[in-house]
Write a structure and sequence with these properties.
The chain has about 120 residues and is mainly alpha-helical. It has two domains: about 80 residues, no CATH class; about 30 residues.
Length: about 120
């Protein structure tokens, strides 16, 4: 009697997925009879395939039904135009605001340098 090595689970699941785009009870029964050791895995895989198919169908239905009415399109356009005008009319910080920060930074660095010059000799001695 010739014995064959059992088919790996991945190969069985791949063959099951390729048998039909959406599995049916007949296909599941056929594979569970051929590979009884993988009956639980095949059943779970069939459920996953069915759920994936159902989710894809729902996604396709929502894409078809998501056309935007002209009124909604106008409202969105009006909102975006108003937002653009607000952002455009907002005053931008001028260089005058940046200079005090720069001067402050220079002053802080000079004080820090002087502090190090005064304190460094006392720390090392």
């Amino acid at each position: 009697m010739i014995t064959y090595a059992p088919m790996p689970l991945d190969d069985v699941l791949h063959a099951f997925a390729m048998a039909k785009a959406v599995p049916d009870p007949g296909t599941l029964e056929e594979f569970t009879r051929k590979y009884p050791a993988y009956a639980d895995e095949l059943t779970e895989f069939a459920v996953d395939l069915l759920l994936d198919s159902a989710i894809e169908d729902e996604a396709d239905e929502t894409e078809v039904g998501e056309s935007v009415s002209p009124a909604v399109s106008r409202a969105i356009s009006y909102f975006q135009n108003a937002l653009y005008e607000l952002e455009r009319s907002r005053p931008r910080p001028s260089k005058a605001f940046r200079k005090p920060r720069t001067r402050l930074r220079i002053w802080i660095e000079s004080v820090s340098d002087r502090w190090r010059a005064v304190c460094a000799p006392t720390i090392h001695s």
